[in-house]
Amino acid sequence: MSFMAPGQVVWFEIGTREAGTAEKFYGDLLGWSFEDDLDSSVDGRRYIRIMASGAQWPMGAISEDGSGGEQINVSVFSADVSADVDRLREAGATVLVPATQVADVTWFAILADPQGNPFSLFSRTSNESLKDRAQATEEQFEQASYAPTPGSFAWFEIGTTNADATREFYGQAFGWRFELDETAGGKPYYNVFTGNQWPSGGMYDHGGEGADYLMPSFLTGDVAAQSKEAENLGAVIEFGPDGNPDGLVYSRIIDPNGNRFGLFSMPTQS
């Protein structure tokens, strides 16, 4: 299956009233760099691409809107944003931003799942002059998914107080498959398969307690040190650092603007 097939999570967005705070926090914490996307900066809204250190292509964006609120979401590739908005509304999603075209670049929409977690849909342009660029970006996205660099978007996580409803919605919405993670030491954690043979996200079943969320997670070499640094920069450690028996370490953090994200490090290879 193509990495940019419908249902794949390949992007994230930070919505904010003032981009400078987010740029400073994540730049200092994870070494991100930023550049304005002039094609997508319309109607007084700045759209700022995010690059991890050493990466060849952006992995997400900051969307600055002085009249908006604070929000972070993951983005799911769609073959037809308008049709998917209608279909997902029928499945129980709430439409926060309807299907919208941005110049000649893309279509997008923002919805919330039945638990209230925002996510976005996007489709790449059909503009003939941009097809070669779209193909190149797909290849770069796929390469980054196989060998993510430190600071890169390499996982997403759903926290849910209603695991059955969450599985039903995302299974119906995008064909996602959920399998209990046997390496999690008995924790109610499920790997999420979005169409490929490897998982690209996870679901934590809070069993009726805790927060509902859908967040991006970023790869780091030292979760404890990076979590402490996030705290020094004004964030709040919501959970962790914690780990699995196989050596994976993770934490869940609220940034200074109130947006939730995760940090994780992979098990050490013996």
What can you see in these coordinates?
The protein is an alpha+beta fold and 270 residues long. It has two domains: 9-146, 2,3-Dihydroxybiphenyl 1,2-Dioxygenase, domain 1; 153-265, 2,3-Dihydroxybiphenyl 1,2-Dioxygenase, domain 1, CATH 3.10.180.10. It has five helices and 16 strands. It has an eight-stranded mixed sheet with strand order 2-3-4-1-5-8-7-6. The longest helix has 16 residues, at 131-146. The radius of gyration is 18 Å and the shape is globular. The relative contact order is 0.16. The model is unreliable at 127-137 (pLDDT under 50). This is VOC family protein. Residues 16-122 form the Glyoxalase-like domain. InterPro entries: Anthracycline_SecMetBiosynth, Glyas_Bleomycin-R_OHBP_Dase, Glyas_Fos-R_dOase_dom, Glyoxalase_6. Residues 153-261 form the Glyoxalase/fosfomycin resistance/dioxygenase domain. It holds the Pfam family Glyoxalase.
> Which secondary-structure class do the elements indicate?
alpha+beta
Rg over CA atoms, rounded to whole Å, is 18 Å
Low-confidence stretches: 127-137
Question: Can you identify the CATH class of the largest domain?
Answer: Alpha Beta
Shape: globular
| Whole-number count of domains | 2
What is the architecture of the largest domain at the second tier of CATH? Roll
Can you give the mean pLDDT? 87
Sheet bearing the most strands, described? Answer: 8 strands, mixed
Name the helicity range: 10-25%
Describe the strand arrangement of the main beta sheet, using strand numbers. Answer: 2-3-4-1-5-8-7-6
CATH superfamily of the largest domain: 2,3-Dihydroxybiphenyl 1,2-Dioxygenase, domain 1
- Strand tally, please? 16
Tell me the quaternary state.
single chain
Share in β-strands: 35-45%
CATH topology of the largest domain: the name is 2,3-Dihydroxybiphenyl 1,2-Dioxygenase, domain 1
Number of helices: 5
Measured between the Cα atoms of the first and last residue, the distance is 31 Å
The string of secondary-structure elements, in order, is EHEEEEHEEEHEHEEEEHEEE
Organism: Saxibacter everestensis
Protein name: VOC family protein
InterPro entries: Anthracycline_SecMetBiosynth (IPR052164), Glyas_Bleomycin-R_OHBP_Dase (IPR029068), Glyas_Fos-R_dOase_dom (IPR004360), Glyoxalase_6 (IPR041581)
Domain Glyoxalase-like: 16-122
